[in-house]
């Protein structure tokens, strides 16, 4: 005779819940790692953009200084040019040559000034674009940081749930072990009783066999044994 041991349904339920929470925790940790990597990439990109903005601001300042220098040069040369033009008809050939050189210098300065203004506008547009990009990165960076905090809180909650599930799982395993131990004891007792019953049955059969030559019937022996 044997005893079939059934595992309590609560143990299976707890193991199932434990597996679900464990998978959720692992997935949340994977999401957290992915978000952290993306956050680090965004931080690196923001740092690079900040460096670009700093360089552009330096170039911007240099262009402003260059532009102001060209303005000062033109301001100094234009009065001289006007004066030279006023007396051009009365000047000697050497003065005419100097006047032509002055014209060329003013023309070149005007070209340089125009180029400086164009570069100034280009650098200003680049700086404005870089600042817009940086602001967009900063906004997204804050969103990622918020996602990181949210995921961290979610992981903490899952860790807490996992701890409780582990405790329930441990209790269910202990309950199953106690049930198994009790069933083993019951099975041992059953086997012992079965063995005793077999011994009694064998003794009974022996007694019946031994009494048959004496003419005792089976019914009489049964009454005698009772």
Distance between the termini: 26 Å
Mind telling me the C-alpha Rg?
51 Å
- Count up the helices: 3
Q: Can you count the beta strands?
A: 0
Let me know the average pLDDT: 72
- The helicity comes to over 70%
Regions with little confidence, pLDDT below 50 for 5+ residues: 1-7, 214-226
Order of helices and strands: HHH
Which structural class fits the helix and strand makeup? mainly alpha
The protein's oligomeric status is: single chain
Write down the overall geometry.
rod-shaped
User: Main beta sheet: strand number and arrangement?
Assistant: none
Coiled coil: 99-175
Keywords: Coiled coil
Keywords, please?
single chain; disordered N terminus; mainly alpha; rod-shaped; 226 residues
Could you write a compact summary of the structure shown?
By secondary structure, the protein is mostly helical. The protein has helices at about 10-85, 95-210, 220-225.
């Amino acid at each position: 005779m044997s005893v079939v041991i059934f595992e309590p349904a609560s143990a299976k339920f707890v193991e199932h819940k434990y597996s679900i929470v464990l998978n959720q925790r692992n997935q949340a940790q994977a999401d957290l790692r992915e978000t952290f990597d993306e956050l680090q990439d965004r931080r690196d990109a923001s740092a690079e953009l900040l460096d670009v903005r700093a360089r552009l601001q330096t170039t911007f300042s240099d262009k402003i200084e260059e532009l102001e220098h060209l303005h000062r040069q033109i301001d100094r040369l234009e009065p001289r040019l006007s004066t030279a033009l006023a007396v051009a008809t009365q000047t000697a050939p050497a003065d005419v040559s100097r006047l032509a050189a002055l014209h060329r210098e003013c023309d070149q300065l005007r070209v340089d000034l125009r180029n400086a203004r164009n570069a100034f506008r280009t650098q200003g547009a680049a700086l404005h674009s870089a600042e817009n990009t940086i602001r967009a990165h900063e906004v997204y960076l804050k969103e990622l940081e918020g996602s990181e905090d949210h995921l961290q809180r979610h992981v903490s909650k899952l860790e807490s749930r996992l701890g409780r599930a582990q405790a329930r799982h441990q209790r269910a395993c202990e309950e199953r072990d106690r049930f198994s131990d009790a069933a083993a004891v019951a099975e041992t007792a059953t086997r012992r009783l079965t063995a005793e019953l077999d011994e009694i049955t064998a003794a009974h059969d022996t007694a019946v066999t031994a009494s048959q030559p004496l003419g005792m019937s089976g019914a009489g022996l049964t009454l005698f044994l009772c």
